[in-house]
């Protein structure tokens, strides 16, 4: 899987969580063993900075 595919997959999971969003810790727990916390946080930062998602109180929501 290409790095951009990983970013897009994480975005899709957040988007699928709907209006309730998904707690960041829960999402990372699903990815433990697949990527480091630093990598995960970099992806979340990238998605946030590109206005694809919001992160409020560790709750991730897709911008629709």
Helix and strand layout, with pairings?
Blueprint: H1 3-16, E1 22-23, H2 24-31, H3 37-49, E2 53-56, E3 59-62
Antiparallel strand pairs: 1-3, 2-3
Description:
With about 60 residues, this protein is of the alpha+beta class. The protein has helices spanning about 5-15, 25-30, 35-50, and strands spanning about 20-25, 55, 60. The protein has a 3-stranded antiparallel β-sheet.
Strand order of the main beta sheet, please?
A: 1-3-2
Distance between the termini: 26 Å
Count of helix runs: 3
Helix content: 40-55%
Order of helices and strands: HEHHEE
Q: What's the number of extended β-strand segments?
A: 3
Mean pLDDT, to the nearest integer, reads: 95
Shape: globular
Relative strand content: 15-25%
Number of domain units: 1
Low-confidence stretches: none
Structure summary:
This protein has a 3-stranded antiparallel β-sheet. The chain has one domain. The protein has helices at residues 3-16, 24-31, 37-49; strands spanning 22-23, 53-56, 59-62.
Structural features:
3-stranded antiparallel sheet
């Amino acid at each position: 899987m290409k790095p951009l595919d990983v970013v897009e997959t994480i975005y899709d999971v957040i988007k699928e969580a709907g209006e309730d969003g998904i707690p960041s810790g829960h999402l990372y727990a699903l990815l433990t063993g697949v990527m480091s916390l630093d990598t995960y946080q970099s992806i979340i930062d990238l998605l946030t900075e590109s206005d694809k998602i919001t992160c409020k109180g560790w709750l991730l929501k897709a911008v629709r």
